Amino acid sequence: MPIIEATKASDIDLVRRLVGQKVDVDAVDTFGRTALHYAAALGQDAGVSVLLTRSNSINARDEEGFTPLMRAAQNGHANAAKLLVAAGADGALRNNAGQSAYELAIANGHPDVGKLVGE
């Protein structure tokens, strides 16, 4: 999926073009992840913003039950987490291991992000 590959490559210009061409921004890869999962996991604030303009899957879960917010929290990406929370991401959801975004942030040494996503 070109949108996922462009996001993984941090090619924000291509991501913008693809979003403008109305590609399916909610397409998933073999891990069940959307481009938004990758943008959040990589801390690509601009990518998160662009993808949120067209995504209907802000709380989409990958095969491990992680949402984009969980990926941002796990990796300590405060700005990406803020964008997701502001857009309505649900911080109370839990992954397949029973962990919330807050618990992932704390477990990985990111208390500042934990505060953003709530308990």
What does this structure look like?
- The chain is an all-alpha fold.
- It has one domain (about 1-115): Serine Threonine Protein Phosphatase 5, Tetratricopeptide repeat (Alpha Horseshoe).
- Helices cover about 50% and strands about 0% of the residues.
- The protein has helices spanning about 1-10, 10-20, 35-40, 45-50, 70-75, 80-85, 100-105, 110-115.
- Helix 1 runs parallel beside helix 3 (about 35-40) and helix 5 packs antiparallel against helix 6 (about 80-85).
- The longest helix has 9 residues, at about 10-20.
- The radius of gyration is 13 Å and the shape is globular.
- The N and C termini lie far apart (about 35 Å).
Strand fraction equals under 5%
The figure for the number of domains is: 1
Measure the end-to-end span: 34 Å
Helix content: 40-55%
CATH class: Mainly Alpha
Strand tally: 0
| SSE succession | HHHHHHHH
The CATH homologous superfamily is termed: Ankyrin repeat-containing domain
Given as residue ranges, the uncertain stretches (5+ residues, pLDDT < 50) are none
Biggest sheet architecture: none
Task: Give me the oligomer status.
Answer: single chain
Structural class designation: mainly alpha
Radius of gyration: 13 Å
Q: Globular, elongated, flat, extended or rod-shaped: what is the shape?
A: globular
Averaging pLDDT over every residue, what do you get? 96
User: What is the CATH fold-level name?
Assistant: Serine Threonine Protein Phosphatase 5, Tetratricopeptide repeat
Examine the secondary-structure arrangement and name the CATH architecture. Alpha Horseshoe
Helical segment count: 8
